[in-house]
Automatic annotation (TrEMBL):
Domain BPL/LPL catalytic: 1-186
Family classification: Belongs to the biotin--protein ligase family.
Catalytic activity: biotin + L-lysyl-[protein] + ATP = N(6)-biotinyl-L-lysyl-[protein] + AMP + diphosphate + H(+)
Residues of the signal peptide: none
Keywords: ATP-binding, Biotin, DNA-binding, Ligase, Nucleotide-binding, Repressor, Transcription, Transcription regulation
Protein function: Acts both as a biotin--[acetyl-CoA-carboxylase] ligase and a repressor.
Single GO term (MF): biotin--[biotin carboxyl-carrier protein] ligase activity
Keyword Methyltransferase: no
Lineage, opening ranks: Bacteria, Bacillati, Bacillota, Clostridia, Peptostreptococcales
Residues of the full protein shown: 70 to 322 of 326
Residues reported in the UniProt entry to bind biotin: S21, T22, N23, Q44, R48, G49, R50, K115
EC number(s) reported in the record: 6.3.4.15
Protein name as annotated: Bifunctional ligase/repressor BirA
Length: 253
């Protein structure tokens, strides 16, 4: 059956000067927020990353935002939202800056091997009720430097391109790209359009990667991203495996 969402992404925007975390706010208030609401903050005091990490979100330098989505889809579909968001952000960065942004499956955007954006998709809702999907997007936009511990791994659009970027313009562009891909997806749960982008701009397809899951570290070659948004890898012994979560890092980098 067709699953329609009539609400445009970003028709309602909730804007904060400062907040703990736009994702936390979205989760807390999900009941009251309309489908498609976008939460933005100039800074986050407790920005959250994946795996309980914190996400540095200094004032006025980045895009810290959460999309509140209430599609009528099974909770298992939620993971695909990360792919849609990654495709939208990557496309927007390329369109507006010309920088060679790549998607490091499942949820990072990198430029020159360093992280520029992270995505944290979370579900909220009661029991088996239709879940709210919160897509948190953090982008280092005009950051001019990072702390020692981040310097090796993180970068910003300003550092890479040497130009300050209009954050508002970038947000608008991302929402436009996200909405286009999301609407195609939601019509018949078809991820094709997103996959074209995700594969085209993949930082890892065809490459030797390390898959780190807990204490386990496996070497493999990334060969495809399937229409569930899962990563297909080939192990050294030739066997293939589908990877659904876990930390993926590129060997040699
Ligand atoms: C990651 O790479 O680990 C994901 C980082 C996600 C950061 C964004 S910033 C907006 C939203 N609010 C949060 O607290 N986190 C996400």
């Amino acid at each position: 059956e067709a699953l329609i969402s009539n609400n445009a992404i970003g028709q309602q925007i909730v804007y904060f000067d400062s907040i703990d975390s736009t994702n936390s706010y979205a989760k807390k208030e999900a009941n009251k927020l309309k489908d498609g609401t976008v939460i933005l903050s100039e800074e986050q005091l407790l920005g959250r990353g994946r795996r309980g990490r914190n996400w540095s979100s200094p004032k006025g330098t980045g895009i810290w935002m959460s999309l509140v989505l209430k599609p009528n889809i099974p909770p298992t579909e939620g993971v695909k939202m990360t792919q849609i968001a990654a495709a939208a952000v990557c496309k927007s960065i390329r369109e507006l800056t010309g920088l060679n942004a790549l998607i490091k499956w499942p949820n990072d955007i990198v430029i020159n091997g360093k992280k520029i954006c992270g995505i944290l998709t979370e579900m909220a809702g009661e029991l088996n009720e239709v879940n709210y999907i919160i897509v948190g997007i953090g982008i280092n936009v005009n950051t001019d430097g990072f702390s020692c511990e981040l310097k090796e791994k993180a970068t910003s659009l300003f550092i890479e391109g040497g130009k300050k970027i209009d954050r508002r313009e970038l947000v608008v562009n991302i929402l436009k790209n996200f909405e286009a891909l999301y609407n195609i997806y939601i019509k018949d749960l078809n991820l094709d359009e997103t996959l074209v982008i995700v594969k085209n701009y993949s930082a890892i397809l065809g490459k030797e990667i390390k898959i780190i899951q807990g204490n386990l570290e496996k070497k493999a070659r990334a060969i495809d991203i399937n229409n569930e948004g899962l990563l297909l890898v080939q192990m050294d012994d030739g066997s293939k495996e589908l990877i659904s979560s876990g930390e993926v890092s590129i060997r040699g980098e």
